[in-house]
Amino acid sequence: MTEPKYKNLFSPIKINNMMVPNRIIMAPANGGYSKERATSGAGINIWGCGSVDLPEAGMMEGMPYMFTKYSYQKTRRILDFMKQGGSKASLEVMHAGLMRRGNDNVGPSVQKNPEGYECRELAEEELFEIAEAFGKTCKDAK
To answer: Per residue in 1-20, is it b (16+ CB within 10 Å) or e — as a string?
Structure first.
């Protein structure tokens, strides 16, 4: 009998203090909390497009920060939903930047994004603000 090609794929793995049921990771998807994804059996299920806490960070204007006192319970319900099939839930943390659909888009230079929206160039101090926002969001997510 031959050894299976991916013999560890369906075996559990411990990552720090977290036991993951298998080594399959569901790639992030915006709005990625469908019943099919939640019950897929993946070891880790990644929720996509969790924007940092800056007004221009979301994919569209008016997207609330997912960890405010007003959004936290909805975020918790979605993450709990994603874990119903035994997966661990994870979050893709992002800043839409050039790809944002709306006004106040920022990017590496003045240009139009692929959707035709004007983007202004980021100032150096804004890069530090964005880096801080990533840290805050990761802490809030944890």
So the answer is: eeeeeeeeeeeeeeeeeeeb
